[in-house]
Amino acid sequence: MFLAVIGLLTISANFQPASAQEEEQAPAATEEVAAAAEEEAPEVVDPFAAGASDKPLHQQLKKLFIEGGAGFMAVILLCLVFGLAIAIERIITLGMAKTDIKAFGEKIEEKLAAKDIEGALDICRNTRGPVASIYYQGLLRVKEGQDIENIEKSVISYGSVQMGQLENGLSWISLFIGIAPMLGFMGTVIGLIQAFDAIEVAGDISPALVAGGMKVALITTVGGLVVAIILQLFYNYLISRIDSVVVDMETASIDLVDTLVKNTK
Length: 265
Description:
The chain is mostly helical. The chain has helices spanning 2-40, 57-67, 70-97, 101-113, 117-125, 130-144, 148-166, 170-202, 207-263. Helix 4 runs parallel beside helix 9 (207-263).
């Protein structure tokens, strides 16, 4: 037993230095393998990782405008400028066309109850908007001594005229909404033609050859769609405002006829 214990102690003493040496060599070998793998592995570049541009927004838009082709991009920009100008003018006009129907109708009814036709006409002259114009046309027929049926017909007819004036310019906005994407798609076709021409001249297909033409195609398409979306928002807003004014006009026409019938009995 004594000899067996001595043998075990001897074997353990010899095994521990060997294990320590292997443990020291193992991390070094692992580090060498990792370093070799990093050297052999190609550097992976994220194509979607883009650095922040130091250029301001207006310079970036200017660069895209030039790269998209000054010809088509200028026409698309003109569609946006003219469309916005008409839309802003219509918004201002429709804002001034809004009238407080209840207060206005009460003033006219007071004058008619007092048989003061001229006073009612003066109120209409001093009030802006299609509602006052409709009242003015109806009161002129009352002053001329026409019957209620003719007055009602003239009010309805003049209401149609006022509605046409409210919609003035909307056809141009609709035209620009249709033209802008078409110009963008035309720029797309031209960009593709340029790309295929470059391929034909070089006799080979490479990303560098088609990149320029494809970039023109995409920029013009985006420009046309952005212009159409902006003008479409303004167009729908104007349509809703016009519908509101038309409802006021119809309500005012009914109130005018009822007031005339009540005060002519």
